[in-house]
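#struct-help
A.M.: can someone run this one for me? Single chain, 225 residues.
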Amino acid sequence: MFARVVWLVLRKDLMVEVRSLEIAYTTLFFAVSCVLVFAFALVQEGRPPEDGAAGILWISIAFAGTLALGRAFERERQSETLRALMLAPAARPAIYVGKLLGIVALLVAGEMVLVPLIALLFQAPLLARPVWLAVILVTGTVGFAAVGTLFAAMLVRARSRDVLLPVLLYPITVPVIIAGVRATAALLQPDVDGEILRFWFALLVCFDVVFVTLALWTFEPLMTD
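D.P.: on it. Structure tokens below:
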């Protein structure tokens, strides 16, 4: 039953987004604009800054993810969908997991565009080790979206939600972003240090476990209040 509820919520979000593409277009446009601004500001005479690609990638993901979270739950508020889900006879953690996977899928789709764009503009070997890069990006995205989904759902009825969401989200997710940046930077080195890479990846996994567990534990009481 838990898996069925997760799938139904995820399928609903994906079907709505595929039909409208509202959040996908907005998020992608914002993320690409961010990368282009950094490229024009930092690339001088065709020489990009050393080790800048990892930080720019994760900054773009964080900014675009915040926008996606706000727009996704604004749509839920306008149609009262979240209220209907909370009134349904379904496990509240399953609803949270379904919403989380929908946000992660949206961000991963955007990252598939960002990675080759940043690799091209900043001459970074991001695609040299695609498996490791994909694992790091997905792990970091889950940690960021786990906190963001909880806060965005909690603030859906707040009048100043657009201001409160980044204020609450960034202080908590900064460790995830830092670990993602350091892991990606380690991956871009000519001689990859396996121990450093595994350390930052293990830290990302720890953050994911802690954030997802706390969100599952607190989602129902926060939404009930």
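A.M.: thanks! The mean pLDDT is 87.
D.P.: also worth noting: The chain has eight helices and no strands.
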